[in-house]
């Protein structure tokens, strides 16, 4: 377990401070609200999934915080996962928060997170699944997207979420 004052926690907080500057500079208030909710929501789900699966929760949190930052910074959605991996690499290099291996792990997850129909590394799958959880648990009254349904149902099963809830889908 990581204590509140450990060096590991500081890496997350340093990244959060950097990301917050980008988000605070967004002109569209509604988009800014969505960015905070989505990026930090995905980061929290990354932590939960990584802990359950025995993955590195700290790096998973960082991947979650970075995964859609390109969209919010540029307001460009096309190729956002691939462009987002480049942005993540630049940020991690600038902040000197991660080793080369850690940077590659995070950037691979960001690069692949939109390919929900494919299976990649265990670490990449944490980010994809966290993204799906956040999309679908943000407001359970919204319908589940067809392209996320199978992954979402598998997550509900993995986390032991009630069959009654699953049947309501």
Provide keyphrases for this structure.
169 residues; 73% helix; 0% strand
Can you put this structure into words, describing what you see?
With about 170 residues, this protein is mainly α. Helices cover about 75% and strands about 0% of the residues. The chain contains nine helices and no strands. The protein has helices at about 5-25, 30-55, 55-65, 70-75, 80-95, 100-110, 120-135, 145-160, 165-169. The longest helix is centred in the N-terminal third of the chain and has 25 residues, at about 30-55. The protein is globular, with a radius of gyration of 16 Å. Mean pLDDT is about 90; it is low at about 1-5.
| Secondary-structure element order, N to C | HHHHHHHHH
Tally the beta strands.
0
> Which stretches are poorly predicted, pLDDT < 50 over at least 5 residues?
1-6
Q: If you average the pLDDT, what whole number results?
A: 92
List the helices and strands and how they pair.
Blueprint lengths: L6 H18 L4 H25 L3 H10 L2 H6 L5 H16 L4 H13 L9 H16 L8 H13 L4 H6 L1
Helix pairs in contact: 1-3, 2-3, 2-7, 3-6, 5-6, 6-7, 7-8
Quick structural overview:
The chain is mainly α and 169 residues long. Helices cover 73% and strands 0% of the residues.
């Amino acid at each position: 377990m990581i204590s509140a004052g450990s060096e590991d926690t500081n890496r997350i907080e340093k990244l959060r401070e950097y990301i917050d500057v980008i988000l605070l500079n967004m002109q569209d208030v509604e988009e800014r609200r969505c960015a905070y909710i989505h990026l930090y929501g995905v980061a929290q789900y990354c932590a939960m999934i990584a802990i359950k699966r025995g993955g590195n929760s700290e790096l998973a949190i960082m991947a979650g915080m970075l995964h859609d930052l390109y969209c919010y910074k540029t307001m460009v959605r096309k190729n956002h996962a691939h462009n987002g991996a480049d942005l993540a690499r630049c940020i991690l290099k600038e902040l000197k928060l991660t080793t080369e291996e850690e940077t590659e792990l995070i950037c691979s997850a960001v690069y692949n997170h939109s390919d929900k129909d494919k299976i990649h590394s265990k670490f990449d799958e944490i980010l994809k699944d966290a993204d799906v959880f956040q999309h679908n648990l943000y407001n359970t009254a919204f319908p589940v997207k067809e392209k996320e349904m199978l992954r979402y149902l598998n997550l509900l099963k993995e986390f032991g979420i009630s069959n009654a809830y699953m049947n309501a889908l």
